[in-house]
Specification:
Helix content is 48%, strand content 15%. The protein has 17 helices and 13 strands.
Length: 504
């Protein structure tokens, strides 16, 4: 009984200290609002100490964050950076439960901590000459934003085990002539971090995130539907000028042939291959791939010898969805390029798909059917003949496949779509390879014409059969084939195809 009383008293004391910490933190905020940053810093540190004494991480990161802001306002850049790192470390402990009951996503609730640190450090690096110190700071920024991206993917899938086969891979030592473009979207500007095998550079574009978002939305709305007036080109040129033109001379000097883009926020919803310089599309100059994050991708080439491929799809109208007659052409063309085990229509049922994948040792799994990637990953699915194959079921099945020591090399999702303009739905598309345990995925941003899809897939596999072609280059050749055909030259037919993850 005495121990029970003591425990109850301890709980009361902890609740009281939590209230004290909250009061100290709110007082600090009032001082900061009045630009009394010395007083704000003192109260923030008191609040952090009190919160830490009772293990209140849900408060601690707030007061560490507030300290970082006050230190930045006082011009104490390194002390501010340290306080931001402390807040980020606290969020790392808290992150699995951060948004519970908050009614906000990770991006709304915690991502500002990461991006404010990036803002602070990138303002500092902009004034530094090119050299070891600057490169170190730029890599530090990239690593911090990577942590935010991983946390966002984990929250989307509600799975803290989502790590990625490439976790820890050092991508500064890239194979091939690839450049990684890492946009960081800040309130008043775009920062582009561009990595080559032996260097990393910073390019600053004075365009606000709100202005960029508006341009992206207009571009997506117009490019998705066929229009002979080609109004999308105005937006394609503007986005090219902001995201690619500042890097052009450096890329040309570096003899780059592949761009690996790590899109963020609204940039996830558009096909960057369709940006236009006034003369030609970006894909006419470079192979283009995307990845949800650098530490989520392992850069390893596809071994062409003895490729094991499982292909399946629906040609008929089932479960209220329209028929996809060109899927038959698509599946036949795959079999001509690579020996394939094929499941079609009545044979393409959930149990059989799961059995074939679980018992096989496929390098490539190709699924040609209707599909939806929703802002809620639990509503995302691929249509089988008899039921819906959810991403969770697909991931579980792939994880049980016969050759467990090697991840699935390529997952192709043909004739799928995401919710138009929905950043979180596009995050699901970008994270599908990661969640399913594949090194890379080929999928589409919106529902694509059945005939043009079959054409892209046929050309993609033909090009992929050439050992000299990377997966990104194989997709590029397929897209160029459509661009040169007047029937399919409009980017609504070829642009939505994205190569996600390992581009080699």
């Amino acid at each position: 009984y005495t121990r029970m009383e003591s425990s109850a008293a301890s709980d009361v004391y902890k609740r009281q200290l939590r209230l004290v910490a909250w009061s100290q933190g709110l007082e600090a905020g009032l001082y900061a609002d009045e630009h009394q940053y010395e007083a704000a810093l003192a109260r923030s540190r008191q609040a952090a100490f009190t919160a830490q004494s009772v293990g209140a991480d849900d408060q601690l990161y707030r007061w560490q964050w507030q300290s970082a802001r006050s230190l930045a306002a006082l011009g104490e850049t390194e002390a501010s950076a340290l306080a931001y790192h402390q807040a980020i470390a606290t969020l790392g402990r808290l992150q699995p439960h951060l948004a519970e009951g908050a009614g906000q996503s990770f991006r709304e609730l915690a991502a500002p901590v990461f991006f404010e640190f990036a803002d602070l450090r990138l303002r500092q690096t902009a004034a530094l000459p090119t050299g070891k110190e600057k490169r170190g700071y730029l890599k530090e920024v990239r690593e911090v934003i990577e942590r935010a991206k991983l946390a966002e993917v984990q929250e989307y899938f509600q799975d803290q085990c989502v790590q990625g086969e490439g976790q820890g891979t050092v991508l500064d030592q890239l194979a091939g002539n690839a450049a990684i473009i890492y946009p960081i979207l800040l309130p008043d500007r775009i920062e582009l971090l561009v990595t080559l095998p032996d260097d990393i550079r910073q390019f600053t574009v004075p365009v606000s995130v709100d202005r960029l978002t508006g341009e992206v939305r207009a571009f997506r709305e117009q490019i998705e539907r066929y229009d002979q007036r080609q109004d999308f080109l105005v937006h394609a040129r503007t986005l090219y000028d902001w995201l690619i033109a500042p890097l052009e001379s450096w890329l040309r000097w570096s003899d780059v042939d592949t761009l690996v883009i790590v899109p963020d926020g609204p940039l996830r919803t558009i096909p960057l291959a369709a940006l236009h310089d006034g003369q030609r599309y970006l894909v006419e100059r470079f192979a283009v791939a995307t990845t949800p994050g650098l530490t989520l991708t392992a850069p390893r080439p596809l071994v062409r010898e003895q490729v094991d491929l499982l292909a399946g799809g629906i040609t008929q109208s089932v479960q209220g969805f329209s028929a996809l007659p060109n899927v038959a052409v698509e599946l036949d063309s795959i079999s001509e390029a690579f020996p394939a085990d094929t499941l079609r229509d009545e044979a393409f049922v959930v149990d059989e798909v799961q059995r074939r994948i679980a018992e096989g040792d496929q390098d490539i799994v190709h699924i040609a059917t209707h599909g939806q990637f929703d802002s809620d990953h639990r509503q995302s699915f691929l249509l089988a003949y008899d039921d819906k194959l959810t991403m969770d079921r697909l991931q579980t099945t792939i994880s049980r496949r016969g050759r467990q020591d090697e991840p699935l090399e390529l997952l192709v999702l043909s004739a799928c779509q995401t919710a138009a303009g929905d950043d979180r739905a596009a995050l699901g598309l970008a994270g599908v390879a990661l969640k399913a345990g594949a090194r890379s995925a080929l999928a589409t941003l919106w529902f694509v014409n059945d005939a043009s899809t079959a054409r892209v897939i046929e050309r993609f596999y033909q090009a992929l059969g050439e050992p000299s072609n990377s997966k990104a280059e194989a997709l590029r050749q397929a897209q160029l084939d459509l661009i040169q055909d007047p029937r399919f030259a409009h980017p609504s037919y070829w642009a939505p195809f994205l190569l996600i993850g390992n581009w080699l």
